[in-house]
Amino acid sequence: GSGNSRTMMVVNISPVDTSLEESMNALQFATRVRNIQLDTAQQSGGGVVEKNLQDTIRGLKKQLKTLKGAQEKLETECTTLKRDNARMSEQVQTIQTARLQSKAYEGLQKQTIEL
């Protein structure tokens, strides 16, 4: 196979006639093993997979940083909007109070004119 690793297999055979079948099986097995080729990613200890995972991690960290920045911006905007809302609520309350006082004053004026 290609890559930076080698695999070696030692086959022990016997010249004795009684071991002929076992020796032939061992040689056939060794031939099948010799034809096995490992995937490059497996040979390099998962280098391709590891690189892809590291790229994914880098991308996710960058995305997280961007999202944290956006979150901070939105939190600041939310705080500002809450403050503006509170101020406007006070203004509405002041206007309503002034309106009630104005109606009460008009009512008193009518009563005074009638007297």
TrEMBL record:
<feature type="domain" description="Kinesin motor">
    <location>
        <begin position="1"/>
        <end position="36"/>
    </location>
</feature>
<dbReference type="InterPro" id="IPR027640">
    <property type="entry name" value="Kinesin-like_fam"/>
</dbReference>
<protein>
    <recommendedName>
        <fullName>Kinesin motor domain-containing protein</fullName>
    </recommendedName>
</protein>
<dbReference type="InterPro" id="IPR027417">
    <property type="entry name" value="P-loop_NTPase"/>
</dbReference>
<dbReference type="GO" id="GO:0008017">
    <property type="term" value="F:microtubule binding"/>
</dbReference>
<keyword id="KW-0067">ATP-binding</keyword>
<dbReference type="GO" id="GO:0005524">
    <property type="term" value="F:ATP binding"/>
</dbReference>
<dbReference type="GO" id="GO:0007018">
    <property type="term" value="P:microtubule-based movement"/>
</dbReference>
<dbReference type="GO" id="GO:0005875">
    <property type="term" value="C:microtubule associated complex"/>
</dbReference>
<feature type="coiled-coil region">
    <location>
        <begin position="50"/>
        <end position="91"/>
    </location>
</feature>
<dbReference type="GO" id="GO:0003777">
    <property type="term" value="F:microtubule motor activity"/>
</dbReference>
<keyword id="KW-0547">Nucleotide-binding</keyword>
<dbReference type="GO" id="GO:0051231">
    <property type="term" value="P:spindle elongation"/>
</dbReference>
<dbReference type="InterPro" id="IPR001752">
    <property type="entry name" value="Kinesin_motor_dom"/>
</dbReference>
<keyword id="KW-0175">Coiled coil</keyword>
<comment type="similarity">
    <text>Belongs to the TRAFAC class myosin-kinesin ATPase superfamily. Kinesin family.</text>
</comment>
<dbReference type="GO" id="GO:0007052">
    <property type="term" value="P:mitotic spindle organization"/>
</dbReference>
<dbReference type="GO" id="GO:0005737">
    <property type="term" value="C:cytoplasm"/>
</dbReference>
<dbReference type="Pfam" id="PF00225">
    <property type="entry name" value="Kinesin"/>
</dbReference>
<keyword id="KW-0963">Cytoplasm</keyword>
